[in-house]
Amino acid sequence: MTVSFVFLQRHLNGTGTSLSLEDLFQLLSSQPENSLEGISLGDIPPFPGSINDGMNSSAHYDVNFSQAISHDVNLHEAMLLCPDNTLRRDPVARTSQPQEPFLQFNSHTTNPEQTLPGTNLTGFLPVVDHQMRNLTSQDLLHGLDINIFDEINLMSLATEGFDPMELSHLFEESDSDSGLSLNSSQNSTSVTKSNSSVCEGAIGSSSDLESLSQHALEGAVGGYYPEPSKLCHVDHRSDSGFHGDLAFQHILHNHTYHLEPSALESTSQSFSWPEKSQKIRSRHFNDTDRNLSRDERRAKALHIPFSVDEIVRMPVDSFNSMLSKYYLTDRQVSLIRDIRRRGKNKVAAQNCRKRKLDIILNLEDDVCNLKAKKETLKRERVQCNKAINIMKQKLHYLYHDIFSRLRDEEGRPVNPNQYAVQCNHDGSVLIIPKELVTSGNKKENQKGKRERRN
DNA sequence: GTTCTTTGTCATGCC
DNA sequence: AGGGCATGACAAAGA
Predict the structure, then answer these.
(1) Would the Cβ of A280 be found within 7 angstroms of any atom in strand C?
(2) Which of A29, A147, A178, A309 lies most in the core, judged by the most C-beta atoms within 10 Å?
């Protein structure tokens, strides 16, 4: 006991029962480490570094400490944690993000023949005669004038009510070397489809050419492009921007939407269909009509001279100019508009689902992170509670130590059951009867409650 | 036969 | 005003 008894007495007797907090701590700090039954302030562990870190981290993450500990986090809240409510995960990294639903027309053709427009293929292709007969129309059309196809388009527009069988005969007679487009690629709306188109476009010198020639006949949904020589000139509008473009697209684009996987495998494209899709596709390959989508079948039935892909992907200006420049019946126009709307919406739906998936994945990540953070905060809370308990215990010992030294005016020990140490806001410490403390506390509590209500 | 998933479509609202 | 986009809801097909 290093603090003199007189010191305390002087303070307690001389100044009434007032003991400043400073004095109290002077008293405490002057105690040997083993005083207070072996517990001193030095034993109180500093506020755990991790706690500070935790607090900082709490602040850093803008997480309310208590809330973060006690609240579960739902997906919506987790999503709202994003400051700008945007996706933090790079969708491209997260998914393959084939988010370029509109691949360029004619961008990559795997058909080497396409690199030789205007070339007579028969001079280049080292194929035997029967293969030549089975070459698709696309293979043979490169040498033809674009304007011819312009006319073809117009003619097919004029085939409203035309007998498809008659047109088919035209193809048969021309032995598949009419000006059908087949070998363009990447013209589809969805990525999956565009991938397929890439492969589909690359028919190369497949042994399946024979089977593919049938698809060639179905190339454009309007699919009937009679042999140019058998057509009369209806109207020459090759000088129109869109018309020329469109005609050219008909030449270069693959309007075959579903080709046999075996044909795809023989190409230089590395893309391969998923096993599921291949099964589905191969199951339907013998039924060419079933190969076509509903809109493709409808378009085919109405002899729409453009592929569904073109209708969907065409810029609005071109689309409108197409509708105005071409003679189209109301039914055709209506169908074309429907096809365009549905096609656009299909792509939008695909993108929407992709986004939704990304959002869900991001939220799952957020949930994981927040759970980890919650665990950290829980651990920190346990450490805080431990430190608080140690502090309480030390105060308890200090309290009893003080009372063991206190003496009243007559030199008698002060009964700790009758008196209490009260620390005031101004730093002063008073020894007051317990009745006053309890009544004072009650008043304080009531006052606090009133203030809280207000 | 039931359930789940995928995909296309429609309706609607917003830009 | 028209077109496109986003998205919820529904249905069909397939696993």
Answers:
(1) yes
(2) A309
Nucleotide nearest to A353 (CA to C1'): C7
Number of domains within chain A: 2
Query: CA at A95, C1' at C10: how many angstroms apart?
Result: 27
Q: Could you tell me if residue A367 is inside a domain? A: no
Task: Out of A328, A361, A389, pick the residue that ends a domain.
Answer: A328
pLDDT band at residue A359 using 50, 70 and 90 as cut-offs: confident
Largest CA distance in chain A: 134
pLDDT digits (tens, 9 = 90+) for A302-345: 888 888 888 888 888 888 888 888 888 888 888 898 899 999 89
**Residue A345, CB, strand C, below 7 Å:** yes
Percent of chain A with pLDDT over 70: 33
Ordered strands of the A18-20 beta sheet: A18-20, A428-433, A419-423
What's the rounded Cα separation, in Å, for the pair A75 and A363?
6
CA of A319 to C1' of C3 (A): 11
**Which nucleotide's C1' atom has the smallest distance to the CA of A356?**
C7
- Residues A59 and A132 placed together within one structural domain of the fold: no
Distance A370 CA to B11 C1' (A): 38
Can you give the residue range of the structural domain that contains A49?
Answer: 5-83+375-453
pTM of the model: 0.41
A342 touches strand C (CB under 7 A): no
Q: Determine the pLDDT at residue A9.
A: 40
Using a 7 A cutoff on CB, list residues near strand B: A 190, 192-193, 293-295, 338, 341-343, 345-346, 349-350, 353
Give yes or no: residues A117 and A55 share one domain: no
Angle between the A146-157 and A241-252 helix axes, to the nearest 10 degrees? Answer: 100
pLDDT at A331: 84
Give residues with Cβ within 8 angstroms of A197, minimum separation 6. Answer: A103, A185, A186, A187, A188, A254, A257
Q: A403 and A294: one domain? A: no
Indicate if CB(A276) is under 7 A from strand C. Answer: yes
Is the domain of A402 the same as that of A306? no
Measured CA A170 to C1' B14 distance, in angstroms: 50
Would A63 be classed as within a structural domain? yes
**Structural domain includes residue A420:** yes
Task: Give the tens place of pLDDT for each residue, A228-283.
Answer: 333 323 333 333 333 333 333 332 233 333 333 333 333 233 333 333 333 333 33
